[in-house]
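User: quick one, fold this
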Amino acid sequence: MSVTYKQIRQDEEINLLIEHGNSILKELGYTEHSRKHAARVSETAARILKELGYGRHRIELGKIAGYMHDIGNSVNRHDHPHSGAVLAYQILKERGMELQDAMTVMTAIGHHDEETGTAVDEVSAALILADKTDVRRNRVQNPVPANFDIHDRVNYAALASSLTIDREKRVIRMELELDDAICTVMDYFEIFLQRMIMCRRAAEQLGCRFKLVANGSKLC
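Assistant:
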């Protein structure tokens, strides 16, 4: 590839955009969207594509899209998938990425949010699944539990989460363990219903079914 994930991961401008966006979200009381989240989404997207048998080129594009998907937060949280997609396309062109590859990354970033997006190819599908299943306690940036909104409570209540891919059965399964003294399974399903529907459609784009199990209960 003309531009690699390793180069993107070490790119000063991209890393500054990610961290600047996260500092804004922290000020506004949102959950963590730092380089840690970017790297986690990147690696998960790559694992999904690899375990489902996609080639190295698509896997690399999935990793790049995963790492860059939230750079639009540096502009504004509102409409961040679209501003991020435009930023990413310009940056990748400047770095010398082939136009078709830059467009694939741009499209995946532009479609990763549940309000306006949906999976349109395997790269966008892997990004959506990786992003929406990153639920963990240390994503909460609000230091005052009494001020937690429902997103904070859900993430803070997450004791463990995992995503498994069964290539033979064509099933992508998320398992979540919640501290129900902080957040019940119904609280989770209420706030994340739209995201889980998005994950189901993303799995279908990959020729799979999406399964969600929370505290041992199958929700979808």
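User: anything notable?
Assistant: The longest helix spans residues 185-205.
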